[in-house]
Amino acid sequence: MRDATHDVPALHRRSFLKYSGALGAAAALSSSLAACSSGPESTNDTGGGGSGGNRTLTAVIGYGNDGSWDPTQTASAFSMAANNHIYEGLLDTDPISREPYAALATQVPKDLGGTSWKFTLRSGATFHDGKPVTADDVVFVFGRILDPKTQTLVKGFFASWLKDVRKIDAQNVELVLKFPFPEGVSRLTLAKIMPRHVFSRPGAWEDAIKGKAVGSGPYRQTAHHPKSNTTFEAFAGYNGPRKPAFKKMNWLTIVDAAPRVAKVSGASAGAQLADNIPYANIQQLKKDGMTVEGGAGMNNLFLMFNTKHKPFDDVRVRQALHYAIDTGKMVEVALKGHGKPSSSFLNEGNPAYRKAKTVYDYDPEKAKELLKAAGVKGLEIEILSVNVSWIVDCLPTIKASWDAIGVRTTLSPQETTAVFTKMDQKQDYQVVAAASNPNQFGLDADLIMHYNYGPQNLWMQYARWAGDSVAKQLFRDMDLATRQPDAEKKKLMIQDYIDVVAEQAVLYPVVHNELMTAWDPEKLSGIRAQPYPGVNLLQAKWA
User: Fold this and answer.
1) pTM, whole model, 2 decimals?
2) In Å, how far are 83, 436, 438, 452 from 293, measured between CA atoms?
3) H/E element, 494
4) Which residues are CB-neighbours of 233 under 8 A, at least 6 positions away?
5) pLDDT tens digits for 435-453?
6) What's the distance, CA 44 to chain centroid?
7) Cβ distance 428 to 300 under 8 Å?
8) What is the pLDDT of residue 35?
9) Which domains does the chain have, with CATH numbers?
């Protein structure tokens, strides 16, 4: 049996980077495919001004809008957030609790313990081009996801448990499961229903990658300018559960921190909302009257070791380097208190969280003992790191900690694409430091763990660990947990195999941190800070 994300790495690696933004912060990656736009090329187009209830909501997103917009392929923070406003799943989920609610379907299945889920589509639902949404569109999207010849990112979230999607009639569909999998109901939001008459045309999937978006959601895309902004307007034909509160929206992409903060600062602020707020700017924004709140979740700095490069094949060495890191100092200095040292692969707020049996509390003496037991002396390490700003802020603590136990450490922060190019080309490396946030896809621990671990998983290929005997047993245990029908037993099985992941420390978080969102409370209400990149405005409105 293939696990829930085994199929993700089957994408060509370069495509995976373009489409998935594999690191949480890599949602800001540029895509060479983003040259086209679906609107006018003027980067001065703000989607209109307006006044009163007709005025334009302007949001600043701290990630690029030039990654893939294909909902079956993307993990770009900007496009995933936008797609949640443009498209609908049969079910969608609350952005914070991730509880499923009826979107294109009329209700959530009552029996989640079976192997057949039937859905009736919302009467009168239409796509943004005016054509009705039908069962054929649902079958079309799931057919692409489940097609063994078509590799998509979301395929990995469905292929292990979903057998088939069948049309009953024009307004009704049936999902046939391979085995009972109640968690799958929340994953249905990751299968956005796209119009067959638009995206079955030759070249249409390439257009989707470049920014073409036609859905049935409350907002329709009106212009898309890669590296600048994307505009939206309320869709008059929308008859679903979360009505659009804003006539027009203009989302600016500003990846650099200083201009992003400046855009929402002061009396002449050009935007009412911004995500990805640097910790150093929180107090000033609050003094300016902004509300600044954080969302704590799976966002993390992780270390990944090349287990084919000695001495990192020795678990004692990997453990020693984790024990050596002064994580308390890292949280205090680099994260300004907005984070916690990891005590499990999962963050403490995850429903499946349990403190791992191996917790890497700061213990430099234990680190030295482990290195000595492994027979390691005079170790020199170059940390290959992405140059995401908060990760770069954390690196000096790692270097100082490792230097203090006699490990000479060199920092090598680089563009994310450069880091992956080296790994794609199977170049030798020792340790990678990067950011990840699988909460983009949900809180489901099975999904989160399979996103990172599995015999054909991309990360395991980079770590070169999948052939290890411990790894093989871990993957078997993960597959058994996926199939376990009893929710409490499944949670215990996941917690038990996370203990193995913690002990092995092949790819493991050092700290989990908060993501900060700022908004003007005199202009907006109903905003909730997300623990993953992007914004969700489906329950927001003018104050």
Assistant:
1) 0.85
2) 23, 20, 20, 28
3) helix 487-504
4) 47, 219, 220, 222, 247, 248, 249
5) 889 999 999 999 999 989 9
6) 30
7) no
8) 27
9) 54-243+519-540 (3.40.190.10), 296-513 (3.10.105.10)
